[in-house]
Amino acid sequence: CSTPISFWTVEKFGRRPLLIWGAFGMMICQLIVAVVGVTVGFNHTHDIPNPAGGDPLSRSNNISAVNAQIAFIAIFIFFFASTWGPGAWVLIGEIFPLPIRSRGVALSTASNWLWNTIIAVITPYMVNKDEGNLRSSVFFIWFGLCTCAFVYSYFLVPETKGLSLEQVDRMMEETNPRTSAKWVPHETFATSVGHANGGKLDLEVVEDVERKGSVF
To answer: Which residue intervals define the domain Major facilitator superfamily (MFS) profile in the entry (predicted)?
Structure first.
């Protein structure tokens, strides 16, 4: 239910702030979960008898700390679902130059699912008691990745709100991501096709249309 919020925020605040603050929020949540877990939370447990028999069950020494971890994991999900979850898909559809846009989006999508698969496969081995046994310490790794996302967003993600695809290409040529939000288009679409002089097309455009059969 958090994702629909982004439908409004991505146009109200823009792509760049959404990803920067989303990454920052996720980063803080992961750090809190990790610190609480290794100090007083999930990493500190004791065994209790299993009512059904068999192997004993693990019980946390501090239930409140574990509840706090769960709460911040839920907050993390909120940050992701309302920022990076939908926002990244919006951005990748806008930032690639027109000649390679389809290939860029395809590679981005493939990369997304590749890393989703890798994380889904390796995480159980990282946290299982008989394997990596990282338990809550694994959140330090996720914190590091969210930090990378924050730095990446701040230095490399441009602002594309309110721009056409052609204007995004021009903006990328004339400015850098950190100042992209201040970039203003120099001309309108009508001007670019010569349709701004009293509602009449320029002679060159008319001749071009007659030759190609289209204004494009």
So the answer is: 1-161
Instruction: Among 37-41, 142-146, 149-153, name the one with the lowest average pLDDT.
Output: 37-41
Instruction: List, as own/partner pairs, every contact residues 71-80 make where C-beta atoms lie below 8 angstroms and the sequence separation is at least 24, other chains included.
Output: 72/29, 72/32, 72/33, 72/36, 73/29, 73/33, 75/25, 75/29, 76/25, 76/26, 76/29, 76/30, 76/33, 77/2, 78/2, 79/22, 79/25, 79/26, 79/29, 80/22, 80/26
Per the document, the length of the chain is: 216
Are 97 and 169 spatial neighbours (Cβ–Cβ below 8 Å)? yes
Confidence tier at 56 by pLDDT (50, 70, 90): confident
Comparing C-alpha atoms, which of 212, 209, 165 is closest to residue 185?
Answer: 165
Can you spell out the DSSP letters for 159-191? P-TT--HHHHHHHHHH--GGGGGG---SS-HHH
Count of H helices and E strands in the chain? 9, 2
How many CB atoms sit inside 10 A of residue 147's CB?
16
pTM: 0.80
User: Residue with structure tokens 């992209």?
Assistant: 180
Instruction: Name the nearest CA neighbour of 16 among 77, 83, 79, 78.
Output: 83
Range of weakest confidence among 81-90, 100-109, 180-189 = 180-189
Rounded Cα gap, residues 39 and 64, in angstroms: 13
